[in-house]
Amino acid sequence: MSWTERATSSHKLQLFTTALVSGTVAAIAVLGYQEGRRQLKLRQIRAEIPDVDPDATPLTEYGAAVDVSNPSKEDKRSAALALRARMGDYDDALILEQLARNRVFLTDPGLKTLRNSFIIIVGLGGVGSHACAALARSGVSKIRIVDFDQVTLSSLNRHSVATLADVGTPKVHALRRRLEQVVPWVHWDCRNELFSDKVAEKQLAPWSLDGEFKGQKPDFVIDAIDNIDSKVALLHYCHTHSIPVISSMGAGCKSDPTRVFLGDISASAEDPLSRATRRRLRLLGVSSGIPTVFSTEKTAPGKAQLLPLPDEEFQKGKVGELGVLPDFRVRILPVLGTMPAVFGLVVANHVILKLTGYPHDYLPSKGREKMYEGILGNVQAMEEKLARVAGSDPVGVRVPLTQNDVGYLVEEVWRGKSVVSGLATRLTLVRWRRPEGSVLDTSVEGQKCSTLKMGDLICMTKEEAVRHEKEVLKGEKQPEDVYDGQVIKLVAVRMEEEKEFEKFR
């Protein structure tokens, strides 16, 4: 008997086969019914979606506009109205009505000054876009905006006016297009360019567009850049060319608006961007005189941190290749969308008060010039002592340091605190190690110069320096014999950090 004959004669096998077939048919029926319901639901949802405007700009899979040069009907209408308004076809009474609240606050002379002012804003991210919008709404009529970047989807959590339709468009044109719908009389000079020291003269030049304002110098420059090289170049150019400027430091990783201050750049603290900017500017001879918006908020467990790049990114090749531009940041800062707005509005507020002469004060610089002068004298005396111990004549010894160098070492390298105890009073600078070889350089006839270098000095209290002089500089001990591992490590880290900044000196 064959297997088929045996299977058909087996009652149990017949029952099993029948159950299997019926189960399969039932499963197919259930799945078919569910698929039918899904298709019906999908058709209902699609029927509820309104028809797409044929003039609307579609987005790519990356969320960018396919044709960024195709303005909507509303944009075209706003642009036409703005053009007429800039040509004078806009009743001045309407403008004054729109600015009525500012007018009664600043008075007519103050508002007139603001309306005649020319402002340059460099950087149109969260900070710069809010500053620009506030100034335009307040009456500033000539604004030059500089930014090389485009609006992205991630920009929309903090940008002042950008919409989804602006994604993929240059920030300068997105900002202008939206603000033209609010203040059509404002004259715009859009520069879709990256700021650098090579183009500073061109980008910060007087108003260059045709009209009665041509040749007007900028009344204020706003620094809202988050790239240190460009930031330092802008601030240094403005400072050396006597152009009023205000700088915004980092809003990334900040969350407490009550700790946002406006003060002199020498008073800014608790911000890596601020510290790096101050340090680079000090090396260029600029230590104060620049109003700065910064946060004193300190990091803490549970708060957002600037995380390093993952190891796999480093393994792919040069980290610099990950950036949009050479030497540009390649990490995404954690940013709470409200904080850049706070920084930008504080910047705009200060510019308005400064231009209109409204009473205002901000945190003064630290005013430690006398302290730096005293520390320089202490360093001079120490070098004379070491020369005497080495058997050299200390009379007429010159130290290759200036008061500015002392301020840079104390404030930027050693953070204004003793490396030993962390105290911030009665500070001085002292050599970290006993000098090897001669203390004096007498290679030039008639001149005795100390061989001291800035990288040889550390910051201590005067009491700690006395002990250090006795045990290390005049004694037989090494710093490792006197201080614990934590102090040794801190000194090594700070000295290594300083080597990286020497290239900017």
Q: How would you characterize the overall build of this protein?
A:
By secondary structure, the protein is an alpha/beta fold. The protein folds into two domains: 73-356, Rossmann fold; 369-504, no CATH class. Helices cover 44% and strands 10% of the residues. The chain has helices at residues 3-9, 11-48, 73-86, 92-98, 100-115, 126-138, 171-180, 200-203, 228-240, 272-283, 311-315, 338-356, 369-389, 403-413, 462-473, 479-482, 485-501, and strands at residues 118-122, 142-146, 187-191, 220-223, 245-248, 260-264, 291-295, 397-398, 427-431, 440-441, 448-450, 457-461. The strands form three sheets. Strands 3-2-1-4-5-7-6 form a seven-stranded mixed beta sheet, with helices on both faces. Helix 6 crosses helix 12 (338-356), helix 10 packs antiparallel against helix 14 (403-413) and helix 13 (369-389) crosses helix 14 (403-413). The radius of gyration is 33 Å and the shape is flat. It starts with a helix and ends with a helix.
Summarize the structure.
The protein has 505 residues and is α/β, with parallel strands linked by helices. It has 17 helices and twelve strands.
Keywords:
single chain, 505 residues, alpha/beta, Rossmann fold, seven-stranded mixed sheet, three-stranded mixed sheet, 17 helices, 12 strands, 44% helix, flat, ATP binding, ligase, transmembrane helix
